[in-house]
Design goal:
The complex is a heterodimer of chains A (224) and B (228).
Chain A (H helix, E strand, L loop, with lengths): L1 H17 L3 H19 L7 H22 L2 H5 L2 H6 L6 H29 L7 H29 L5 H24 L12 H26 L2
Helix pairs in contact in A: 1-6, 2-3, 2-6, 3-6, 3-7, 3-8, 6-7, 7-8, 7-9, 8-9
Chain B lengths: L6 E10 L2 E11 L4 E5 L6 H8 L7 E6 L2 E3 L3 H4 L3 E4 L11 H12 L3 H10 L15 H13 L5 E5 L7 H11 L6 E6 L2 H7 L2 E6 L2 E7 L5 H7 L2
Parallel strand pairs in B: 3-8, 3-9, 6-7, 7-8
Antiparallel strand pairs in B: 1-2, 1-4, 4-5, 9-10
The chains are: A mainly alpha (224), B alpha/beta (228).
């Protein structure tokens, strides 16, 4: 399966670099939303629970754009059929798409989190808080990538793709957003505290459950 | 003992929702033979190819390709079948070489085969160009390369010579023509040309097999009647 995952990943990254669709849209949306929050909240600085909420709502809705685009090139240009004709495990596509979406989210966060810190966040988190925030981001992104791949594969086969993605993904991702926001709150508070381990455990468990679920059902989503 | 047929259909039926695309199609095609499928637009020709390629499940009846039952043993058929459909199954923003290399890796084929095929169909000089810069004929030549990249035993060809000029037809002929030695299923709207190429003729009308006969016993007028 490894050569197939490698081939699919190489293709995903090459297409996104050559004809950028998902990442620029997600990054632009994130920065714009942070600007909107800056003016709508009528505050130059936020911290703690409010900061965490603003950050995760922004990242969640930006992720919807990436999920909507995840399978579009494959669907419109027949690449999905090309893959299905090959004698490879369908799980290779799940892994490649989830890793791609995880990477796209990471790139967007490299832009969105500093923009959020510059425009809205109160006291900058120290190095320890930043490292813990990276762990929360990575665990949450893994959950978003797994659920996003499942929802993207399902939605791309319908004409109502742009409607179906948020309708399906938002409820499924609520546990991720709650745990990520709760976990990030002390990290973004003035004189920040450590993240509570239970939120990391919840994110890890969510990733595990949806990883297994995705492995079990993905074949049925992409095959006839 | 006689060799198992390359393709066996017994009562094949396939629906899209309520609409029946193929109904009760039965035939047997020996290894190395050519089946040409005739019929007006919407008759079920492309659906038949997609079922044989494992992309679509049959809803009733039995389908065996290379001795394997579909859809249960589809995993054993993929990789031994090549499909050239209306869609080229190529990424427009990748180059010709990148597209073929992608499929080569999925099929476990060496990249030297990619270069050899590009040269054979006259695309070596444009191999580094993105597919969206290609003419329709060039895309079709590249799609032929993709379909035969893994040296399939069965070729499923949906109007394979569409968009090809005479010179391009000559270039792809060794890959998809009778000389390729593969079992072939070809859709065609050309009664005279199709019957010359066929060992077995199938005429579809509204998803039903209106005609199944050895090609030598079929008159072009019988094919023409399918379209009226």
């Amino acid at each position: 399966m490894r050569p197939a995952v490698g081939a699919l990943l190489r293709k995903e990254l090459r297409l996104e670099l050559r004809a950028p669709q998902a990442v620029p849209a997600m990054a632009l949306f994130s920065v714009t939303t942070i600007v909107v929050f800056h003016f709508a909240l009528q505050r130059s600085e936020v911290e703690g629970a409010l900061a965490s909420g603003v950050l995760w709502v922004t990242l969640l809705f930006a992720a919807m754009l990436g999920i909507s685009r995840l399978f579009v090139a494959d669907h419109e240009e027949g690449g999905l059929d090309g893959f299905l004709l090959a004698p490879v495990d369908r799980t290779a596509l799940l892994v490649a798409k989830a890793v791609s979406l995880f990477a796209f989210l990471g790139v967007v966060e490299l832009i969105a989190v500093p923009a959020f810190a510059l425009m809205l966040l109160g006291p900058a988190p120290d190095a320890a808080a930043l490292a813990q925030l990276l762990v929360v981001l990575a665990l949450a992104d893994a959950g978003v990538a797994l659920v996003g791949t499942l929802v993207g594969a399902l939605a791309v086969q319908t004409r109502a793709r742009d409607l179906l993605v948020p309708l399906l993904a938002l409820p499924l991702l609520m546990p991720v957003i709650i745990a990520a926001a709760k976990g990030s709150t002390p990290l973004l508070a003035a004189g920040g505290d450590d993240v509570a381990l239970r939120w990391l455990a919840i994110l890890g468990l969510y990733d595990l459950v949806f990883g297994l679920l995705a492995y079990a059902v993905f074949d049925f989503l992409v095959e006839d | 003992m006689a060799a198992a047929p390359a393709i066996e259909l017994a009562g094949l039926t396939r629906r899209y929702g309520e609409r029946v695309a193929l109904s009760d199609v039965t035939l047997s095609l020996p290894v190395g033979a050519t089946l040409v499928v005739f019929g007006p637009n919407g008759a079920g020709k492309s659906t038949l190819l997609r079922v044989l390629s494992t992309l679509l499940r049959p809803h009733a009846g039995a389908v065996r390709v290379l001795g394997r039952a579909l859809p249960d043993e589809g995993w054993a058929v993929r990789g031994r079948v090549g499909l050239l459909g209306h869609a080229p199954l190529l990424y427009r923003d990748l180059t010709a070489r990148e597209n073929l290399a992608f499929h080569a890796r999925l099929h476990g084929v060496g990249l030297d085969r990619v270069e050899a095929l590009l040269a054979q169909v006259g695309l070596a000089a444009r191999a580094a160009d993105k597919v969206h810069t290609y003419s329709r004929g060039m895309v079709q030549r590249l799609a032929v390369c993709r379909a035969v990249l893994h040296d399939p035993e069965v070729l499923l060809l949906d109007e394979p010579r569409a968009n090809l000029d005479p010179a391009a037809r000559e270039l792809v002929e060794p890959l998809i023509g009778a000389a390729s030695g593969r079992t072939r299923v070809i859709t065609s709207h050309d009664p005279a040309g199709g019957l010359v190429e066929a060992d077995l003729a199938l005429g579809l009308r509204a998803g039903r097999a209106a005609l199944v006969a050895p090609a030598r016993e079929v008159e072009p007028a019988q094919i023409g009647a399918l379209y009226r």
